[in-house]
Design goal:
Chain lengths: 123, 107
């Protein structure tokens, strides 16, 4: 069973950046889109953006345009989510998730999830 | 952006009850809708995709229906292990969006 393993918890100061990684236990992300979702304490799920391998490009929720960057490494086994200009509103659990299909041309059905990375923004 | 309105926000049922959650999309999304279960402290778990297709390994007491703008998620016989928050999610158009969630409790 494929697993996504995320990096550990982060504590960052307001105005700084955070970079979270998501490594697949098997295979690569060559054919699978990767999406990032966050969950603020006691709140629901919020889609941040995703990496679409067929187009080798990322797509972002407009709310995060300009301060969110989603990438993968050269081997396509690790995906990254970097969020800049952090504020206390960015305190949340951040999840990566892999698409169910291997078409790699869209983000749609998320069947494998990482364990989540807690990001705390505090001065 | 497509808004997903989920109701109720919480519900309580007895073991064996049939419970239903609804999800309304702000525009036609065909059957491009998924349902997830999230237990406390855990990542979401895909239960149903494409509105009504049961994910492999998911018990058949879970089901989904609907198309267009109105969708329904049903647990035919509520079990203690079903205590969780359930979310709908549309993928008809970007940005992907989730409903606000329904917390299910046992009476």
């Amino acid at each position: 069973q494929v697993q996504l393993v995320q990096s550990g918890p982060e504590v960052q100061k307001p105005g700084s950046s955070v970079k979270v990684s998501c490594k697949t236990s098997e295979g690569t992300f060559n054919s699978y889109s990767i999406t990032w979702v966050r969950q603020a304490p006691g709140q629901g799920l919020e889609w941040l953006g995703g990496f679409i391998p067929v187009f080798r490009t990322a797509t972002y929720a407009q709310k995060f345009e300009g301060r969110l960057t989603i990438t993968t490494d050269e081997t396509m086994t690790t995906a990254y989510m970097e969020l800049s200009s952090l504020s206390s509103d960015d305190t949340a659990l951040y999840y990566c998730a892999r698409d169910k299909s291997d078409y790699g041309n869209y983000v749609d059905i998320f069947d494998i999830w990482g364990q989540g990375t807690k990001v705390t923004v505090s001065s | 952006d497509i808004q997903m309105t989920q109701s109720p926000s919480s519900l309580s049922g007895s073991v064996g009850d049939r419970i239903t959650i609804t999800c309304q999309a702000s525009q036609d999304i065909n059957t491009h809708l998924n349902w997830y279960q999230q237990k406390p402290g855990k990542a979401p778990n895909l239960l149903i995709y494409d509105a009504y297709t049961l994910e492999t390994g998911v018990p058949p007491r879970f089901s989904g229906s609907g198309s267009g703008t109105h969708f329904t998620f049903t647990i035919s016989s509520l079990q203690p292990e079903d205590i969780a928050t359930y979310y709908c999610q549309q993928f008809d158009d970007l940005p992907v969006s989730f409903g606000g969630g329904t917390m299910v409790e046992i009476k």
